[in-house]
Design brief:
This protein has 13 helices and two strands, in the order αααααααααααβααβ. By secondary structure, it is mainly alpha-helical.
């Protein structure tokens, strides 16, 4: 019984760590610490015509919040209600990062794992291929439109300890920061900002900084 109690507490430990990192770094983690973000960055460097951010991508950026609601809350609770066991629905049914960084290496190095692969793996591999293809033409599509963890971290962008901040005394409202932003930000440091620093590079009066905010 004591062991089962430990298992029941594990999701709260994970949630606690996520909230801790959110309060400290928020989406700075997306910009500087996510391996799948780096993969998307490298794919985007392939010389091709690029889809620039526009009104449609702004609207599509809200999709990750619906995905977070459905796959992190509603579906796990539904599974728990009907089966007595929760399911990490996003990781199980969607996550292309997990497919690339975990499932494919395991399947490659362990023949016994390959024998167990079925339709679900084919589905997730298809999603990975679509994401990889999209990342060649669209800047970080997984981060902008899909990732539920990015959605959670984005809610903490305004109050996180580290990130991007603007010195409004020095700011001349030239809007160069937004003209060069590849994410779907409405202003520097909003919930879509991953603190990549591109805005800081183009600011003519050095009003934008990256680091401790408070």
């Amino acid at each position: 019984s004591s062991l089962s109690g430990v298992f029941l507490r594990i999701p709260f430990y994970v949630l606690g760590f996520i909230l801790l990192f959110a309060l400290i770094f928020a989406r700075l983690i997306c910009g500087w610490g996510c391996p799948f973000g780096l993969v998307q960055e490298l794919l985007y460097k392939i010389p091709t015509p690029k889809l620039q951010r526009n009104r449609f991508t702004y609207l599509l950026s809200y999709l990750k919040y619906f995905i977070a609601l459905i796959f992190l809350i509603i579906l796990p609770l539904a599974f728990y209600h009907f089966t007595g066991s929760g399911v990490p629905a996003f990781c199980k049914f969607i996550c292309p990062a997990g497919t690339l960084e975990a499932a494919l290496p395991l399947a490659f190095f362990k023949p016994q794992i390959r024998e167990l692969l079925g339709q679900l793996f084919i589905w997730k591999l298809s999603l990975l291929c679509l994401t990889v293809l999209a990342a060649i033409f669209i800047y970080r599509p997984f981060c902008r439109f899909i990732c539920p963890l990015g959605a959670i971290y984005g809610l903490f962008n305004k109050i996180s300890l580290f990130g991007i901040k603007v010195n409004h005394v020095k700011c001349i409202n030239c809007n160069l920061c937004m003209e060069h932003c590849k994410m779907d930000c409405r202003h520097v440091g909003d919930s879509e900002c991953i603190a990549c620093g591109e805005c800081r590079k183009v600011c003519p009066v050095k009003a934008i900084s990256l680091g401790k905010k408070f």
